[in-house]
Amino acid sequence: MVSFFKRLKDSISQKTESVTNKFKEGLTKTRTAFVERVEELITRRKKIDEAFYEELEEILIGADVGVNTVMQLIDELRVEVKKRKIEDAAELQPVLSEKLIGLLRGDEDNKIHLESSGLSVVLFVGVNGVGKTTTIGKLAHKYKSEGKRVLLAAGDTFRAGAIEQLEVWGQRVGVDVIKQSSGSDPAAVMFDAVQAAKQRGVDILLCDTAGRLQNKSNLMEELNKIYRVIQREVPGAPHEVLLVLDATTGQNALSQAKLFGEKSGVTGLVLTKLDGTAKGGIVIAIRNELQLPVKLVGLGEKMDDLQEFDSEQFVHALFAGLIQASEQVEE
Ligand SMILES: Nc1nc2c(ncn2[C@@H]2O[C@H](COP(=O)(O)OP(=O)(O)OP(=O)(O)O)[C@@H](O)[C@H]2O)c(=O)[nH]1
Ligand SMILES: [Mg+2]
Asked: Are residues 297 and 246 in the same domain?
């Protein structure tokens, strides 16, 4: 019995460790640009004074944490520093991590809500090239490995090569794709896909759509039609509408989310290409300035490079270098 619990505990901690490692790897660029600069600031300035706060502000804004969020964060830090009577800059790091985790944590959870039995439908939306199709491929892989029956719907009938791209992912992952010819009505594709999913006893249907700008009203209307077809054919569906955002576009991603979120019944966000940016602080800005939870993050182009978002893991991975450094100092 004891060994069973020990094995269970070990396997859980191994899993947590591998998740943190994935984040660590994917956040390398952000960590180098952001954490190393904070570290440098702490060692150079030593004391917490006005000049220290000003420089910290600059670093945070540079990492795309967003001006409003940075102001809030610095104010909270000031309060905490006074309360705890901190003078030494080196002691600020744990307080900063704590505050960042606080900003990232929300009331709503980061899980993707699916039916425990029966068909769940997840719709992916977003502007061109943000990583919708890739995320669908990765997520299909994840669910398939968990033993779920997955089906994909090729709802991007607009861009040349889009259907083939989804089919390549389908083959790679080993799941079927429901499609029609290029140029056909995406709502009709969704209708077919839902019928096929029901007939085949599928657990999760992942629906791709064409990239669109939130200000193109005909395309937003098309999305609306897709949404209505799914809603009509499956009770409670779509279970999630995930807006995919490209982290490398920084503050632009934030404004996309604001505009899209208002118009298309978005339930959560996917932030892709975090591996490709030094501005991973955008996660914090998005979390703090929008009511929408970040549910998934993309950390590379491969099948396994997708993680469920976890605020503590994220901040931990971000500060991995610093935490190690401060532990060494303590030794
Ligand atoms: N480095 C990195 N690249 C990514 C990630 N996610 C997607 N990409 C790449 O981004 C590019 C665009 O991805 P797609 O999945 O085609 O994007 P999309 O939103 O479906 O694009 P459209 O269908 O044209 O609107 C591809 O080259 C992907 O490999 C990620 O997390 N990290
Ligand atoms: Mg696509």
From this structure: yes
